[in-house]
Amino acid sequence: MRQIRYQIFIGSIVTIxxxxxxxxxxxxxxxxxxxxxxxxxxxxxxxxxxxxxxIMKNDRIVFSKGFGVADVESKEPITPQTLxxxxxxxxxxxxxxxxxxxxxxxxxLEDPLLQYFxxxxxxxxxxxxxxxxxxxxxxxxxxNRNVSADTIxxxxxxxxxxxxxxxxxxxxNFPPGSRYEYSNPxxxxxxxxxxxxxxxxWQKYVEDKILKPSGMTSSTITDGPHPETxxxxxxxxxxxxWVEDDYxxxxxxxxxxxxxxxxxxxxxxxxxxxxxxxxxxxxxTIRDSRTVKKFETWALSTEPFIGWSWFIxxxxxxxxxxxxxxxxxxxCNYVTVPEKDIAFVILCNTRRDVKGFTEEIFKxxxxxxxxxxxx
Length: 375
Hints:
alpha+beta, Beta-lactamase
C-alpha cells in the first residue's frame, strides 16, 4: 500500500437526520455549487475514472455528486452511492471496533501485545508495546514484510500473513510512544485483536457494531478478494490507456485491517453523523478518540498530531480532524471541521489531485462564508 504519512484532505455536503436517513440535497448557497461542479467536471472527465464528492453542514448534505466512470469497460458512471475502497480511512473503523470492545470492558488500551500474540520472537518487545501504541502509529515496530521480493504472496496475503513477519523483529525503530511512524501492519494486528476478543471475524464485528447501527447498509469489507460487482475499480494511467490497480494487481490489498472498507460518500456521511450523535460509541469515547495523544515517553520536539487513529491539525485557527486513504489506484480524503459543523468526503478511483480538490473546497467555503453560519 502506498502511504501518505500525514495529510488531511476534504469533500462535499448532504442532509442526514438523526435516524440516519438522507434528505435530498438542497441549494443553501448560490453559484458556489455550480462553480464546484464546473471545477470537478473539468478535472474528472465523464469518460475517465474520477470520483465522488460530498459536503455536509449542520447534518445536511448540500453538495453530493459523482464524476467520471466506476469501470472503464462498462462505462458505469460514478454516483454518490458508488462504493470505493477507502484505503486507510478503514483504520478509523478498526480503531472504533477496538474502542467498542474497550467500552465493553473486554480489553484495555494498556494491554500489551504479548497478551494477544504470544508468538513474539522477542517477548520483551511484545510486553513493551501496548494497544494504544498501535492505534497511534507509535509502536516503533519496523515494517519488515519483504513485499517487493514476494509480490505474489502479498497479492493474496490477509491480515495474519501481513502481521506475522512483524512479530519476528528483534529490534525496535524507537521506544514505544516516543515518536510517530506510520504503520499498516499495526492495524492488521488490531483487526486480529478484535477477532480474538470478540470471538467472530473482525469484519462481522464491524458490520454488526458499526456499519448496521450507522445505517451503512451498502458498505462492505474485504475478506480475501474484493467485491467483483457493485464497486468502483481503481486505475492508473499507463502508456496505452487505463490500467486496473486494485485487488490482484496491488500487493497487500487483501490485508484488510489497514485498508479493507468499501463505502460511498453518502454512506460516510452516515458514519460521521453516527459519530456525532454517539450511535455506536459513548460521547466521551468519541471525544477521547479525537483528542491528540501524547505519551510520557514522547521524545520529539514537534508535537504529536494523532488521536485514536484520527489525524488532528489546525487550519486558519480551526481544528481539522480526519483521515486520508491511499491504496492502489484509490485516493480518498475524509475531513471534519467540528467547530463549524462541516464534514467533507472525496473518494477517487484514480490518482486525482485530492489535495488540490481539498484546497478548492476550503477556498469555496471561505468565499461563501460556510466557515461561518449557515441558516
